[in-house]
UniProtKB/TrEMBL annotation:
Residues 145-160 have a biased composition (Basic and acidic residues). Residues 112-160 are annotated as: Disordered. It comes from the Bacteria. The lineage of its organism: Bacteria, Bacillati, Bacillota, Bacilli, Bacillales. This is Uncharacterized protein.
Amino acid sequence: MKSSFVIIVLITMIASGCVTRNFDSNMDLGKSHLHEENYLEAHEAFELAYKEAKTSKAKELMDLSGFLAAGMKKYDEQDFKSAQVEFNDASAYKAKSGEGKLLVSKATEMTSVSQSASIEPGEGNVESNTAEESDDPNSGSLKSSPEKQGEPVKDKPLSEHEAEKLVRAYVEMEKFPHLQIEYAREDKRGNYIFQVFEADQKSKGSGHGATWGWYGVNAETKEVFEVM
């Protein structure tokens, strides 16, 4: 009878140890993917960890990485309004862990970026310009040629999110955990411009400190260069 009890205890201990190892392994894997901003892979790893042990931290990171993964996918598809919904959900999340707070900060940043991207410049002037041209008897000379009207609009071969990854690799930001990156603007040549700066330690990584440097990415050649 005693031997049976001992065997049961040993089996329970072994099973518990396996669960702990699987949980820790998946949590570490998820954090590694977060560091590389691979949010979908991070979400999948945290989901596996949560299945092993339903801890509040695993659920927090699983939820937040899921929001960011969905938001980044919509952003890359240029569905900016849907991306904003995902980023807003993540921004409103009451994170408690350090990793979770960084994800909330990233979501807040991407909310602003997606809002800016969803505004089409000059949209309000199209109708007024058309009306002025139709009222002007000489407006025929101002109309675009058929060749220009039928000319297809070329999409950029490189998205803003992909450009940001190139800058992160160029600066080797994984070696400097105190650094953060933020999209600044697009210059006249169509290059993406980013600011890399040191995180304000008092605000736990969510504020700006000293500027590390300004970097541009050529959307055609994918070349990263320093902006003077």
